[in-house]
């Protein structure tokens, strides 16, 4: 204690003894590792990393890909009431991190015409971040978000989801049109496209299509309008244009590792022996049973069972675990879990929006008569092909051969002679498998379409009465620190619970 405080005492003694000491006091109390000036490139990279990492991994369980016998880890698959605070995390993390970061970048460069490409990419990334957040919670702070530093707004109002969507469409359209090939970009500071403005445009219009299709029930006219604008603008349809965060590494700081793989490894699979799973996680029987029943070649890419401590991808031995278990089963080691050589690679890319997703959405648009560039059946098959090809991004263990893909498609044709509802069900059954592991996007599409027709887990002590969530709950801190605006949002939207439906979820 004496050694720690004596230099401080000495400084104060010197201040009394020497004139002008106050001139250096401010410098002495300035953090040398912090800067009052925003570095747009550095901060944009950080916003990309934080925005990608802020995903609700618990939705892996909700969409019945994974489960756990452990109640603490079982909130996603079992909706355990005692763990309801898990639903707060995306909201709690977003505002001080990626939202604050990307708004800081935008404020720094918005008045400089020479940086229009940096601004456009930032506006698109901001739209991505907010679209993910509002799709989890509904009404959220939007127009006043990130204004604590600039405008001293510490209690932001909650905007309606409808108004947020309207502004996100505007932002995406304006940003895509503003790109200028002659101007500078973020370059290598952009971990998604390396500054490629053509690809950023495709990302913007693909996000626009995603959001447009969200509105098919609440506002079909606006959904059609924006879907057609997105299609005309140009979408992610090729493997090379997939929106993904690149550059993750195996060693070093955690922020530089694939966030999904890191989370799954740390919570369960780091020992890679099939038995020492800290939180009792395995693939859920619903997912594995579906892959096996359909003879899906992705089974060997995604799933392993450990035999004598060694991973085995043989289809015959793959087995999913029931979400109803409340204690570790004696045969725990015999259940399937994620493949260390694909989904659990720390240096694998993190997929944000793929050509599999856009093709499936286009298939629905074609069924609705909003797109005539290809048939729904052809687009559906393009979606399956893209979904299987994307696993090559994860290395040799992810390769699915053209023959395997064509064989699968041959036995899983779109039922074009059936009803539109039957065709939509087939499209979104494939969407469920094809967009994995993006469970947050599958969760949103499930709520809109009802497909796949998952049967909820009515586990003892669950928070939803045996129903699948419709939204996540606001953090308790909002009730304490932003009570007036929180109460206004709840009065407008409905009770702050898991079964309240947000604007587009009709």
Based on the model shown, name its key terms.
single chain; 506 residues; mainly alpha; Serine Threonine Protein Phosphatase 5, Tetratricopeptide repeat; 3-stranded antiparallel sheet; two-stranded antiparallel sheet; 9 strands; globular
Distance separating the two termini: 63 Å
**Average pLDDT metric:** 93
CATH architecture of one domain: Alpha Horseshoe
Q: Which descriptor suits the 3D outline?
A: globular
Low-pLDDT runs of 5+ residues are 1-22, 25-30
CATH topology of one domain: Serine Threonine Protein Phosphatase 5, Tetratricopeptide repeat
- How many individual helices? 21
Number of strands: 9
Helix and strand run: HHHHEHHHEHEHHHEHEHHEEEEHHHHHHH
Spatially, the strands of the biggest sheet line up as 7-6-8
Report the biggest beta sheet as strand number plus sense, adding barrel if it closes.
Answer: 3 strands, antiparallel
Secondary structure class reads: mainly alpha
Strand content: 5-15%
Q: For the CA atoms, what is the radius of gyration?
A: 24 Å
CATH uppermost class of one domain: Mainly Alpha
Helix content, binned percent: 40-55%
Write the layout of secondary structure elements.
Elements: H1 2-17, H2 22-28, H3 40-53, H4 59-62, E1 66-68, H5 75-78, H6 89-109, H7 116-137, E2 140-141, H8 148-151, E3 158-159, H9 161-178, H10 197-214, H11 220-233, E4 243-245, H12 259-269, E5 281-283, H13 285-293, H14 298-302, E6 303-307, E7 310-312, E8 337-338, E9 350-353, H15 355-367, H16 376-389, H17 402-410, H18 420-434, H19 439-449, H20 476-481, H21 483-493
Helix pairs in contact: 3-6, 3-7, 6-7, 7-9, 7-10, 9-10, 10-11, 15-16, 15-18, 16-18, 18-19
């Amino acid at each position: 204690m004496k050694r720690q405080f004596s230099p401080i005492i000495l400084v104060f003694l010197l201040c009394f003894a020497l004139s002008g000491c106050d001139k250096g006091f401010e410098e002495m109390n300035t953090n040398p590792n912090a800067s009052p000036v925003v570095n747009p490139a550095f901060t944009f990279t950080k916003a990309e990393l934080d925005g990608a990492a802020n995903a609700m991994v618990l939705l892996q369980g909700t969409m019945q890909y994974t489960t756990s016998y452990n109640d603490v880890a079982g909130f996603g698959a079992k909706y355990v009431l005692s763990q309801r605070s898990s639903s707060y995390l995306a909201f709690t993390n977003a505002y001080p991190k990626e939202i604050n970061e990307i708004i800081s970048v935008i404020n720094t460069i918005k008045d400089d015409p020479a940086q229009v490409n940096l601004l456009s990419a930032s506006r698109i990334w901001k739209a991505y971040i907010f679209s993910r957040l509002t799709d989890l919670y509904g009404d959220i702070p939007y127009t006043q978000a990130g204004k604590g530093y600039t405008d001293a707004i510490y209690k932001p109002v909650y905007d309606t989801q409808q108004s947020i969507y309207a502004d996100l469409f505007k932002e995406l359209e304006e940003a895509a049109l503003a790109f200028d090939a002659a101007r500078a970009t973020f370059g290598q500071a952009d971990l998604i496209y390396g500054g490629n403005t053509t690809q950023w445009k495709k990302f913007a219009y693909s996000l626009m299509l995603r959001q447009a299709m969200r509105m098919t029930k609440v506002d079909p006219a606006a959904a059609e309008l924006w879907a057609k604008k997105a299609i005309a603008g140009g979408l992610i349809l090729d493997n090379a244009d997939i929106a993904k965060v690149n550059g993750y590494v195996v060693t070093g700081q955690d922020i530089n590792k694939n966030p999904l793989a890191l989370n799954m490894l740390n919570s369960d699979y780091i020992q890679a022996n099939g038995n020492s799973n800290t939180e009792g996680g395995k693939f859920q029987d619903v997912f594995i049973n579906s892959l096996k029943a359909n003879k899906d070649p992705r089974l060997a890419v995604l799933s392993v069972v450990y035999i004598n401590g060694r991973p085995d991808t043989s289809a015959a031995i793959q087995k999913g675990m029931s979400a109803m278990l409340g204690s570790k089963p004696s045969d725990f080691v015999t259940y399937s879990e994620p493949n260390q050589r694909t989904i659990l690679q720390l240096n694998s890319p993190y997929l944000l929006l793929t050509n599999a997703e856009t093709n499936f959405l286009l298939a629905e648009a074609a069924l609705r008569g909003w797109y005539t560039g290809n048939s729904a059946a052809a687009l559906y098959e393009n979606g399956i092909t893209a979904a299987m090809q994307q696993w090559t991004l994860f290395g040799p263990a992810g390769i699915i051969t053209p023959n395997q893909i064509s064989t699968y498609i041959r036995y899983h044709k779109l039922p074009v002679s059936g009803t539109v509802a039957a065709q939509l069900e087939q499209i979104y059954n494939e969407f469920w498998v094809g967009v994995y592991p993006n469970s947050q996007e599958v969760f949103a599409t499930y709520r809109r379409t009802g497909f796949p027709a998952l049967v909820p887990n009515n586990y003892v002590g669950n928070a939803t009465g045996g129903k699948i969530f419709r939204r996540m709950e606001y953090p308790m801190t909002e009730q304490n620190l932003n009570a007036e605006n929180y109460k206004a949002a709840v009065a407008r939207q409905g009770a702050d619970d898991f079964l309240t439906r947000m604007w587009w979820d009709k």
